[in-house]
Amino acid sequence: MKIAVILVSGGMDSCVTVASAIAHGYKPAFLHINYGQRTESRELMAFNEIADHYQVNKKLVVNISHLSDIGASCLTDESIQVPNADLESDDIPISYVPFRNANILAAATSWAEVLGAKAIYVGAVEEDSSGYPDCRRSFFDAFEQTIDTGTKPGTQIKIITPLINLSKKEIVEKGIALNAPLHLTWSCYKNEDVPCGECDSCYLRARGFEQAGVRDPILS
Question: Is this prediction's pTM over 0.70?
Answer without folding.
Answer: yes
